[in-house]
Amino acid sequence: MLTEWTDRLTSVFREMGLPEARARTEAVLLVDSAFGLLVAPLAGGDWGEADAAFHALLDRLEPGWRGA
Q1: Could you tell me if 4 and 35 are in contact, meaning their C-beta atoms sit under 8 angstroms apart?
Q2: Which of 16, 50, 61, 68 has the highest local Cβ count within 10 Å?
Q3: Alpha-carbon Rg for the chain in angstroms
Q4: What letter does residue 23 receive in the DSSP assignment?
């Protein structure tokens, strides 16, 4: 399942103008981070913290996607 999301996001980032290698790296970073932020609250129970962290991740990554 993670591979499917990574492949799909790689395509999206390529369509946004990112080179193949960078598109793949951005997709892996986003998918793997999101997966971790889904798993961690299962152990710790703090969904609010995971939500805030996910939004912070997007805020940090998004400017690089626009710069393509």
Answers
A1: no
A2: 50
A3: 13
A4: H
46 phi, psi to nearest 5 deg: -100, 85
Please say if the pLDDT value at position 67 is more than 90.
Answer: no
Q: Per-residue pLDDT tens for 6-57?
A: 999 999 999 999 999 999 999 999 999 999 999 999 998 899 999 999 999 9
Euclidean distance between CA atoms 13 and 29, whole angstroms: 12
pLDDT of 12: 95
35 CB-side CA count, 13 A: 12
Give the amino acid at 54: F
Question: What pTM was estimated for this model as a whole?
Answer: 0.84
Give the separation between CA 40 and CA 16, rounded to whole angstroms.
31
Nearest Cα to 47, choosing from 59, 56, 38, 55? Answer: 38
